[in-house]
Amino acid sequence: MPPDHNLADYVDAPTAHRHGGPLRVGLGGPVGSGKTALAAALCRTLGAEYDLAVVTNDIYTTEDADFLRRNAVLPDDRIEAVQTGCCPHTAIRDDITANLDAVELLEARHPGLELVFVESGGDNLTASFSYGLVDVQVFVVDVAGGDKVPRKGGPGVTASDLLVVNKTDLAPLVGADLDVMRRDSATVRGDRPTLLISLREDPAATEVAAWVREQVRVRRLQQG
Amino acid sequence: MTAALLTLADSRLPAGGHTHSGGVEQAIAAGHVHDPASLAAFLLRRLTTAGAVTAGLAAAATTRSSSGRHRGHVPSPGARSPAGSSSGEPPAPASSELVAALRHLDGEADARTPSPALRAASRQQGRGLVRVGRRAWPSPVWDALPAAPHHPVALGVAAAAGGLTPRDAAAAAAYLSVSGPATAAQRLLALDPLTVAAVTARLAPAIDAVADDALRDGLPADTDPLLDLLAEVHATRGDRFFAS
Ligand SMILES: Nc1nc2c(ncn2[C@@H]2O[C@H](COP(=O)(O)OP(=O)(O)OP(=O)(O)O)[C@@H](O)[C@H]2O)c(=O)[nH]1
Ligand SMILES: [Mg+2]
């Protein structure tokens, strides 16, 4: 190592923290856990309060984007779908280029944008968003996947900013113990919050929407 | 050659390349590529047409952006800063001549890319490379580029900003013209990754030959109507994994 070696030469000034622009919220989680249903619920509940848009990362089709369009949750020009080259987790974590392009396109199209949801393609418990792409991330798991899921951990379950255990209405049908899921989540997540919800029973995703509002508020305070 | 070339050609460089298949997704759908031998044929064909054109454009962009420091010459080793340009000599500031020269090259790339889908894919990848390149190799030459330049033009500028030669830029372009589609084919056909690595490795002499040719006077203009047609059909599909 040369004597004049200076670590600052290797690292950017803290430009990684964007100034201004919308709060970017990642919605991740395994296939079918309810990410699109949650995105739709949040758009319905928060659409009148915030200028918002959605990026979808379908693995193969534009199914999720089409669902949001069909259900007229958002106008077409507020939904962008990206292709992930067979690798949904790469597109949200290792090489976020396509998603950044989509977010920047939406920001350019809607200069007053306040909130962007990025739905990942359904993946596994190790998938998580890079904080170069999103400011906060929600990990959505499904009660029908079994009450062992929180215990199994993985970065999505342990380190996401909010863990959503969805489809509590199915618990009696699949023999899942919600208390076990609540307890295991608290154990692996420490102080990070967990919400047990049923989008079937509460299509407005009331509690998750409240959490998102709080994130918007905190970011505005931080940005001054 | 400096280690900057390894970074530039590394598929881990987060420039968005992994979402493009270089036409191989549609070539598979059309039945042209189905096993290692047909993949090798596809890659060789792509290398000597689209690859040759991008190598020529990338080399020319490096030449223009390096203000005569190295037209085919290896930069002399001098005081090197670890994160910045490794040539020791800062690249020339973005002059209006450079802006015009790069815009001209960008137009040459358009003229060599008849398929609108491929033009869009190239600009999308160029934009991604500019985003990461600006951070990796800060230099005033980036400011001479349009917001979403063609990928080979951005690649040539990245090479210049990283202290590389036009030959390095051509080698990176030629290599990338086969490494991306090779990985895409491996994923889509679930080919043995060792077999695909061997196919790519054995293309090395052909890649070198394309990179050498790229330094000759005049920009290459080799075209492949099959690649254009595949890209146009691919762009209309709703059920694709890759952006192109
Ligand atoms: N019973 C029940 N079903 C739900 C609930 N939330 C979502 N679903 C259903 O679960 C299925 C999958 O929901 P999506 O929102 O498409 O899940 P996703 O995570 O976006 O799926 P991918 O994008 O394919 O990974 C749909 O049929 C939803 O209607 C819930 O709370 N209870
Ligand atoms: Mg979905």
TrEMBL record, chain A:
<comment type="similarity">
    <text>Belongs to the SIMIBI class G3E GTPase family. UreG subfamily.</text>
</comment>
<dbReference type="GO" id="GO:0005525">
    <property type="term" value="F:GTP binding"/>
</dbReference>
<protein>
    <recommendedName>
        <fullName>Urease accessory protein UreG</fullName>
    </recommendedName>
</protein>
<dbReference type="InterPro" id="IPR003495">
    <property type="entry name" value="CobW/HypB/UreG_nucleotide-bd"/>
</dbReference>
<dbReference type="GO" id="GO:0005737">
    <property type="term" value="C:cytoplasm"/>
</dbReference>
<dbReference type="Pfam" id="PF02492">
    <property type="entry name" value="cobW"/>
</dbReference>
<keyword id="KW-0342">GTP-binding</keyword>
<dbReference type="InterPro" id="IPR004400">
    <property type="entry name" value="UreG"/>
</dbReference>
<comment type="subunit">
    <text>Homodimer. UreD, UreF and UreG form a complex that acts as a GTP-hydrolysis-dependent molecular chaperone, activating the urease apoprotein by helping to assemble the nickel containing metallocenter of UreC. The UreE protein probably delivers the nickel.</text>
</comment>
<dbReference type="InterPro" id="IPR027417">
    <property type="entry name" value="P-loop_NTPase"/>
</dbReference>
<dbReference type="GO" id="GO:0016151">
    <property type="term" value="F:nickel cation binding"/>
</dbReference>
<keyword id="KW-0143">Chaperone</keyword>
<keyword id="KW-0963">Cytoplasm</keyword>
<dbReference type="GO" id="GO:0043419">
    <property type="term" value="P:urea catabolic process"/>
</dbReference>
<keyword id="KW-0547">Nucleotide-binding</keyword>
<comment type="function">
    <text>Facilitates the functional incorporation of the urease nickel metallocenter. This process requires GTP hydrolysis, probably effectuated by UreG.</text>
</comment>
<feature type="domain" description="CobW/HypB/UreG nucleotide-binding">
    <location>
        <begin position="25"/>
        <end position="193"/>
    </location>
</feature>
<keyword id="KW-0996">Nickel insertion</keyword>
<feature type="binding site">
    <location>
        <begin position="29"/>
        <end position="36"/>
    </location>
    <ligand>
        <name>GTP</name>
    </ligand>
</feature>
<dbReference type="GO" id="GO:0003924">
    <property type="term" value="F:GTPase activity"/>
</dbReference>
UniProtKB/TrEMBL annotation, chain B:
<dbReference type="Pfam" id="PF01730">
    <property type="entry name" value="UreF"/>
</dbReference>
<comment type="subunit">
    <text>UreD, UreF and UreG form a complex that acts as a GTP-hydrolysis-dependent molecular chaperone, activating the urease apoprotein by helping to assemble the nickel containing metallocenter of UreC. The UreE protein probably delivers the nickel.</text>
</comment>
<protein>
    <recommendedName>
        <fullName>Urease accessory protein UreF</fullName>
    </recommendedName>
</protein>
<comment type="function">
    <text>Required for maturation of urease via the functional incorporation of the urease nickel metallocenter.</text>
</comment>
<keyword id="KW-0963">Cytoplasm</keyword>
<keyword id="KW-0143">Chaperone</keyword>
<keyword id="KW-0996">Nickel insertion</keyword>
<dbReference type="GO" id="GO:0016151">
    <property type="term" value="F:nickel cation binding"/>
</dbReference>
<feature type="region of interest" description="Disordered">
    <location>
        <begin position="109"/>
        <end position="130"/>
    </location>
</feature>
<dbReference type="GO" id="GO:0005737">
    <property type="term" value="C:cytoplasm"/>
</dbReference>
<comment type="similarity">
    <text>Belongs to the UreF family.</text>
</comment>
<feature type="region of interest" description="Disordered">
    <location>
        <begin position="61"/>
        <end position="94"/>
    </location>
</feature>
<dbReference type="InterPro" id="IPR038277">
    <property type="entry name" value="UreF_sf"/>
</dbReference>
<feature type="compositionally biased region" description="Low complexity">
    <location>
        <begin position="74"/>
        <end position="89"/>
    </location>
</feature>
<dbReference type="InterPro" id="IPR002639">
    <property type="entry name" value="UreF"/>
</dbReference>
